[in-house]
Write a structure and sequence with these properties.
The protein has a three-stranded antiparallel beta sheet, sandwiched between helices. It has a single domain, classed as GIY-YIG endonuclease (3-Layer(aba) Sandwich), CATH 3.40.1440. The protein starts with a strand and ends in a 23-residue tail after the last helix. By secondary structure, the protein is of the alpha+beta class. About 35% of the residues lie in helices and about 15% in strands. The chain has four helices and three strands, in the order ββααβαα. It is globular. The longest helix is centred in the middle third of the chain and has 12 residues. About 10% of the residues are buried.
Length: about 100
């Protein structure tokens, strides 16, 4: 599982069984549409998994994160991750109020 920082400052999260091959694809515009339109890019984070299914699960998890949470992960500020979770509890107005 990897995170790329694109030329426009956005992040792209992906997973692959061959990181070098996949990075080469991204760099020549044959990767995802998101990266093809935002060259050049920089590899900023990697997690290695033996099981591609686990890497794919992690990719999908991180794709749902805010930019701030991704940056905390990239910068190895793991203590910030729980604080940056998007769980917002809505207050429900009771009809008898």
């Amino acid at each position: 599982m990897y995170i790329l920082k694109c030329s426009d400052g956005t992040y792209y999260t992906g997973s692959t069984i061959d990181l070098i091959r996949r990075l080469n694809q991204h760099n020549i515009g044959e990767g995802a549409n998101h990266t093809a339109n935002r060259l050049p890019m920089e590899l900023v984070y990697v997690e290695v998994y033996v099981d591609i299914k686990k890497a794919f699960w992690r990719e999908k998890q991180i794709q749902g994160w805010s930019r701030a949470k991704k940056e905390a992960l990239i910068e190895n500020k793991r203590q910030l991750l729980p604080k940056l979770a998007r769980r917002k509890i809505k207050k429900i107005k009771r009809s008898d109020d």
